[in-house]
Each structure stands twice: as C-alpha cells, then as structure tokens.
From TrEMBL:
Listed name of the protein: Polygalacturonase
Primary localization class, coarse: secreted
Record keywords: Cell wall, Cell wall biogenesis/degradation, Glycosidase, Hydrolase, Secreted
PROSITE patterns: POLYGALACTURONASE
GO BP of this protein: carbohydrate metabolic process; cell wall organization
UniProt cross-references to Pfam families, sorted A to Z: Glyco_hydro_28 (PF00295)
Membership in a protein family: Belongs to the glycosyl hydrolase 28 family.
Cell location: Secreted, Cell wall
SMART domains named in the record: PbH1
Amino acid sequence: MPPKIWMDLGRRFCRMDEWDRFPALLNAWNAAIASKKQSKIVIPPGTWTLSQAKLQGPNFAPIEIENQGTVQANPDPKTIPNKQAQWITINYVDFFTLSGGVFDGRGGQQAWALNDCHVNKNCPKLPITKDSKTCHINCLECRNVTFTRLTVSAPGNSPNTDGIHVARSMMVNVTNSVIGTGDDCISMGDKLTQVYIQNVTCGPGHGISIGSLGGSINEGDISGIHVKNCTFVNTQNGVRIKTWPSAPATLQISNLHFEDLMMQNASNPVVIDQQYCPWNLCNTTSPSLIQIRQVIINNVKGTTNSLHAVMLSCSSAKPCQDIQIRNVDLTSTTTKGTKPGLSLR
C-alpha cells in the first residue's frame, strides 16, 4: 500500500465564510510529487472549502488523491481568485488517480445567469465541476486516461455544462458512468484518437457529440471513436457529429462506431449535421470542408419523440463516405406505433 499523506484540514465543518483549504492541499501535493515512492493524498470526511487549485508536476512516482468528503467551491464566480483559470486544474503528471468523494462547483442561477457562451463567442470562462458553473471536466492534451464509475449531475436547464470534454488526446476511456447535464454529456474536440465510451447513461443533456468542428484552421483529425452500450434518457440528441459551414478547417473524421444504443424518449437519436449553426453565429454561404467517412451505426433501439431516427446532413463539398446503418428499431412516443425514418438533407 502507498504511504498516505493526510491533508491537515482539521475536523471542523467548514462553511463558505471559513477557511480556504487550498494551502493544505498544495502542501500535501508538493510532498507527493517530491516523493520517489507511490503516495496517496487523503481528503478526510467532511465538507471543505476550496477557493481554487492548480496542481502541477512533474512527479517521480504514482500519486492518488482519495476524496472521502465533499469539496466545495464558492457559489459566487466573482470570488474566484484567477478568473481566467478553472476551479481545479491538474497538469503535467503521469500515473495519477483521483478517486471517491464529491467535488461540488455549486453552480446555480447566480452563476448560470452569467453564462452566455451559447450566444457570445467572447464569453468569460467559469470554473468546472459537479453542478458546475460551466463544463464539468476538461481532458486536454492527455494520453491513456480512464473515467469510470463517474457521476456528473447538473439540471437540464444549466447552460454549457458539458459533462466531459475531450480534445487533443488519445486512448481515453469513459465507462460505467451516469452523466446528466444541460449540454453534451460527452463532447469531443479535435486531434482525438482511440476513444472508448461504454456503459454510459446520458440524461438530461444534449447527448454524446463529436464537435462542433471547423472553426480553426489548426484543427486536427479525429479517428477511432467507439460508443457502445450507452443509454440516452430524455436527451435532446443521441449520438451526434456537428461541423460548422463556411469554416477554414479541412480535417477528417473517420472510423466511428456507434453500436448497441438504447434510446428512452430521446430526440434525434443519430445525427450528422455539417450545417451546424446555432443561434446564427456563423456564415452559411459555403459548405463544410470536413470529410466524414467510415461510420458504423448498428443496433439502435428504444423510443424517440422525433420523426427521424437517423438524420444525415452532409457537406456538398465533402460528401459523407462509407456510412453503414444497420438494425435501427425505434418507436415514436409522439405518434403511437409510428416508426421514425431516415432523413437526408
């Protein structure tokens, strides 16, 4: 067993107006990254206040943070010390494990009222977590990362609260998890390969999405995405690929597998949308230059409130290639007995 580094938090219940626990966490972290042996940082049972934390490596040996309690942010985003940073950031470490407990961002109307990223490209970024003020988890520039037995919880009307956002990474696994948000349960950005999403229940939320892509000339290819044995409950979408029209990127999205999916009153079960332009924030005069190919959609069952089981809106400049659709069996919840069909645009 690795030696435990107990955070010196005391046993007093911590209200929002009491002590900030970041100094204790930072001291424990610095001891752990300096150790040449495997170590574990233990956050004891209780409710603890954390203003903001940036934990960085490199580390010499494996590190685990085991949270036995609840770590809370201040509900007012204006109190965050560094307005340009996330609530908790962990960078430049290898063989890192985070387990147990609750990280509560205390998002609510006070914070969500400030979140206008869906209509404002220059919106201020708010910190991330459970009941996050914005996206819950960002996994960026990572390799060989696993999220398992994870619960993400935010109401369906909380804006821009993606459960997990993954980009510029490879070998990422999300398994055996329940994710409910006001935006995508899982969203995937560019330069991504070997992503495996399995046994995930999504809802509420906008589904599991690739994109939106195409906004930057520097975006890279996506390949090897596997979504399997997932359930979508009252979601706005099931699985979705979305790219911007009139955008400079010319990347490829390929080798995608969407299999064994269960829809429970989900809207838009399968969507490829290469004219994605919410809130009219983009130019629609030219088609998307992103190539989508080698997509397998197999064994999609359950119920939907949409009239279209599968919607394909591909680019006229780069038409979709090698799209295989098999074993789709969905029943409409709005028109009893109706079988939704295929929509091509």
